[in-house]
Amino acid sequence: MYPLSNLLIIDLSRLVPGPFCAHILAEMGATVIKIEDDANADYLKIIPPFNSQGMGVMYYFLNRHKGVLKISIKSKEGNDFLQELLSRADVLVETFRPGVLKKLGLDPKQLLKKNKKLIIASISGYGASGSLSQKAGHDLNYEALSGVLQTNKAPHFLWADLIGGGYYAVSAILASLLKRVQTQKGEHLDISLTQSLFYLNSLRWLESQAGFQNNMLDGTLARYRVYETKDQKQMALAALEDKFWNQWCEWIGKNEWKDKGGEFPDRENALHHEMEQIFKSKNQDDWVLGSQNLDICLTPVL
Question: Which structural domain range is residue 180 located in?
């Protein structure tokens, strides 16, 4: 039996954060029904790349464990149907801008009156209050305002959508479900992608406020970096502790680089350059095979 079996989740969201959140809940056993408005469907479906059925692969992945219903939310029939569905649902996931749900005749306060156990997870870029609440935005904007972008200048991962939105919303919903066991009441959750991502980046922010510009995990140390190999692939070395770094130094014949306890000789730029040349001396497969019996935190970048 899955942990969320017998729970009904209504997914009234589009693109990535909400659908990803509902996807995780479905993986936990919940019955998830995705509502698609006839007039304004989820356009992630038409964003490439496509699968063999001509459907966007991201849309397929995020919604493959859900039932999908197409209705006209603004019509009386469609709205009545959705109201009835929400009267017996456990969770509603939605990603409209703050206030839009009420304009659609789905006022959260009224929904909670009709279904006292309903948990409404409203995921938005900047939250329901504040000067930015009605501003448009995408993942790149939320990363920029949360401080993540300065440490990830060329983002290729949807940090805000997947982590600040999807995973953070799942955590909030699970906590609310646990709370509901005690109170027998649902609630309205206001989840801001920007604020959630800022919280996840808080340790880096505290370092910057203290004037600390570099840390051991940002590439400053040669022992904790990604290197290009001879065949233009990559290897990730994370030999952070002395026991790993010193074993690595022995293996490559550089005993003079060993750390005698917190010295971190691998901060030197000259050593960085030499490490780059060492990794370029072998193909990725050779590094993998050669290190398979060593315990040095060395892995291929796949």
Answer: 8-208
